[in-house]
Fold each of these.
Amino acid sequence: MPADEIKIDKSFVMDMLTDREDEVIVDAIIGLSSSFSRKVIAEGVENAQTAARLMDLGCQFAQGFFYSRPQPFEDALVWASTFSWSNYEPAR
C-alpha cells in the first residue's frame, strides 16, 4: 500500500523534550521519511518548544493543541480564514 505521508504518534512527540529515547525515535522517523521522500506530520504538539524542536529536526508539518483545539467545521473555517503564523512563532 503506497503512503505519501508518515505520521509521528503523539505518544513520542509529547515527551520528546524530556525523554531522550522519544526524541531519538522522532528524529529517526523524520530522517527515514526524508530518505523516502515522504511528508512527515507530528501529532500532539502542545507547546511552542516542541514545535521549535520538531522544526529543528526537519519536521515539515505538525498538529496539536498548540495550533488549535478540535472544533466544529464552521468554526474551523473561520479559524483558518484568520490564521496567521505570527501567532505561532515557536520559542527558540
Amino acid sequence: MVALSSTNTIGVIGAGTMGIGVAQIAATHGHQVRLVDQNSEAIERSIKLMKKGLDKLVSRDRINIAERDAIVNRISSSSQLQDLSDCSLIVEAVVEDLKIKQGLFKQLEAICPYNTILATNTSSISITEIGAALKRPENFVGMHFFNPAPIMKLVEVISGKMTSKSIAETITNTATAWGKKVVQAKSTPGFIVNRVARPFYAESLRLLEEGVASAASIDAVIKESANFRMGPFELMDLIGNDVNYSVTKTVYKSYYQDQRFSPSILQKELVDGGLLGRKSGQGFYQYGDNVSQAIPDSSTSSYKPNAILIEGSLGIASNIVNIAKSYGISVNKSDGNGFIKCGDAVLSLTDGRTASRRAKENNTPNTILFDLMFDYEANPRIAIAAAIQASDKALEHAIGFFQALEKTVTVLQDTPGLCVMRTVCMLANEGADASYQGVCDVPSVDNAMVFGLNYPRGPLEWADQIGLAHVCRVLSNIKQAYGTDRYRTSLLLQQLRDANMGFYD
C-alpha cells in the first residue's frame, strides 16, 4: 500500500504535547488537520506553543514565514468528534487508559466510514486489547510517536492480532513520507523502545542501591565513557520518577513478574516521597536556583608509567595499545589471557566477574578491571574497579596509567560487569529476545533505540563489536554472581555465539 496522499485529511484527538506535535507533522507535510479536544483552552494553549516553536524555525532559516503560516492554517480545531467524519486517518493521543481509548474508538467507528484508519499513540497499552472492543479491528493500528514528535525521528508502527497488513504498511509508508524513521513491531508489552530500554535504568538503579557509585558518578560514566546524551538518573528526573516507575511496573506486570523487569525499591521510595525529579524540585538530584550541581567522583594519581606489558588480546579494547604508544609509553607484548601489566596493577577488561573473583581465580591479587567505552581513544572518562585483595599501590598505578592516556578516572566499588559493559550487554540481551520472539527484526531494534532514544549505537550492533562470545560471558558471569534469572542469556545470543556469527552476519 502507498502512503496517504496530502489530499487526505488527518484527524488528531487530544491537544496535549503529543497531539499538537502529530498535528504539526501532518500539517507540515501538506495535510489538512482536524484537532479535537473537549478543552478549548488546551487547544488554544497548544497552538500558541506550536506557533512559538515554528517562529524559532523561521528565525533559524529552517522554514520561511509563508511556510509557517501555511502549517498553522492547515490545522483547524473542534470539540466535536463528529467533525472527524471525513478523515482518512485519525490519531488518538489522550490519557493512557484502556477503557477511555476503547470507548473513544467505538464512537469513531460509528462516525467514520468503514475504511478510516484508526491509530493510537499509546506507549504501553496492548493494541490487540484496545482493538478487541471494535467492530473493525483490522483498521486499528498503533502509531507511537516520541516526544517531542516534530523533532524525534522514530515512529513505532504496532500491529495487533487483527490489524490488517495493508493498514500497517499504509501507516508505515505515511510516517516515512512524513520524514520519520519507522520500525514495525507486533503488539507486546513495551513494544520495542520501552521494553529494550528497561536495563538502561534498571542496572544503574541497582548499582546505586548497592553503593557502587553515586548517581552523579554513574551518569558521568554513562555519558563520558559511552556517549549517551543523558545519564540514567538525569533522564529519570527529566521524565519524572513517577512516570518511569509506572512504565517499569506495567512492563513487569505484563510479563508476569519476569525478574528482568523488576522495579526498583529505591525508585519506589522516591515516588512515595514525592521526589519525582525536575517537576517536584528533587529526585535523584536537587533542582533550584541556589542548588549546587552534583559532582562525579574522579580519582588522581602521581604515578606516571614509562612502559606496560600486554599479554594476549584485549578484545574491543585493543586500541589501548596504539593509544599508549601515542602518549610515549613503551609497549611490550606476549601471549596470555588478555591483560595489561602496569607497575603493580594487572588491568583487564571486565568479563562480568567481580575483580575479587577474577583475582582469586587467576591468582593475581592486584587485579584492576576497566569498563567498556564507546571509543577508548576519544572518550574522556573511564571507570575502573579494584579487587578487594588489590593493594593501594596497584590501584594508584592503574589510575596513573589511564591518567597518562588523558582519561578522567572514576573508581567504582567492585561489582559484576562494572557500569557501561553491564548496561550495554543487558540492552543487547533484551533486544535479542525481542527479535527472537518475533516482536521485530534485528535492524528495527537498533533503529528504535538510536532514533527513538538517541542511543549512540544500536545495542545489537554494539554487541557485534564487543563480540557475542564476550557478551554471553559477561551475562553468564553476572548471573552466577547474583544467582538470579534476571541475567539469563537470550537464546538468540547463545545460538549466534555458537555459530560464530553476529547479528548482522
